[in-house]
Amino acid sequence: MYSTRAVGLAPAFRQAALRPRNVARNPVLRNLFAKRTIQTESLPPSAEQQILNQQRLRRPSSPHFTIYQPQLTWLGSIANRFTGVGLSVLLYGYALAYLVAPATFDSTHVIEFISGLPDAVKYAGKAILAAPFAFHSWNGLRHLGWDMGKFLTLKGAYTSGYAVLAATAASTVALVLM
What we know:
mainly alpha; 8 helices; disordered N terminus
């Protein structure tokens, strides 16, 4: 309900303006003070959770890829997370495989297996491993620079981002050719 004291109306004027016959004649007041009826329904907790989950599914993801133009800053952040997860999965996967079958995954067998592969497969495998390793390493140094308060401006973020990409390319080529 609206507070008439906040508007500054006197009590007599308030009573005269809000009499039922005045409200019925005045369409503005009739719409302002119209009674609205709503229907409510009691729901069990499971139905409430289902409605909440349906509402969450209709929300856009963040950042909303259909709205924002791709930028080096958030592409680098996403790539850093993916490379970190990928390298971790490889490391822990190999460690678990070595624990399960140490005779199969010891260094002698791994070296024999890799030496039997064609050169093109060796270079491709080295590139697939070297690129994420190099990017994650250089981007980690970039993050350490941010922790020290360096490159925090927009220009600095882009300059350091392009430096990470250049260092990644050079490091990947160097690691593949070793």
